[in-house]
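A quick aside before the break. I want you to see a complete sequence-to-structure record at least once, exactly as it would be stored in a machine-readable document. Don't worry about memorizing anything.
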Amino acid sequence: MANLRAGLIGLGMMGRHHARNLRAIDGVDLVAVADAQGDPHGVAGDLPVLPNVEALIEAGLDYAVVALPTEFHADAGQKLAAAGVHALIEKPLAKTTGEAKALASAFLDAGLIGAVGHIERYNAALQSLRRRLEAGELGDLYQIATRRQGPFPNRIADVGVVKDLASHDIDLTAWVTQRRYELVSARTMFKSGREYEDMVAATCQLSGGLTSSHLVNWLTPAKERMTIVTGEKGMFVADTLTADLTFYGNGSVTTQWDDIAQFRGVSEGEVRRLAIQKPEPLRVEHEHFRDAVLGKPSDIVTLEQGAAVLQVCEAMIESARTDRFVAIV
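That is the input. The structure line, written in tokens, reads:
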């Protein structure tokens, strides 16, 4: 069978990594690239740099990767759907929930595969964490907390830290716990002189009574990417910068003092750093999307899921603006 013909629009910081992986995975040929701003990282190779998505479509594609700035996702995605081209669209799926839902409908109506580039789902630590939670290794889940902090990225200009960074944590939280967001409370800050927020602290409720908290900013001089899940049997800590997963078990301490035995809480137990294979998350994401296009079993972030993430993002922004809890309906 002939290789799939893939195209890429957007040759910036993420686009260069998409190009590398499109050339590396089996069963795919990168046949066309496009960017109105040119090729700053020199990833086109011997391919001409096309000016727009229309020219990309004319190359005759099976699927395309959209790595444009967020504000252009909806337009490019709609044109690809109208042309019958499957698409992997970088996160956030669109600039608004309305645009995201319209994209999901367009691909569904056309019978096409659409996916969102929420790369953290394919991090080995989180893949292992989801399997372990599903197997009941923590028992009843109590809380999930994420921290995603680091320096300001000059390349991001059209959305704030909620849609750019917190969207990762919203998606991974719902995915690893297999719960949905129900209630959101958040506070944002504007410290870098831009129109969009650069810090958010959010407290949320998910289905089944699970609580979550998220600290996200562009104001910290060192990168941090942590996911901590606490349950009745202990705690998992995933560091997605290193793809490490560590288990902290509850201890078992015999209390001899009868008067305080009834108040005994959790004590420190065993600590285990788990050995897991660590493939590149973006490579895994591309392999799953290729398989989805081929009709094989795969695990992609659907456009509907991408739209749901945006809905929670906008609830965080609304909560901060109105000083109220916002329900996800």
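Two observations worth writing down. Residues 4-120+282-300 form a domain with the Rossmann fold fold (CATH 3.40.50.720). The first helix runs from residue 13 to 24. We'll return to this after the break.
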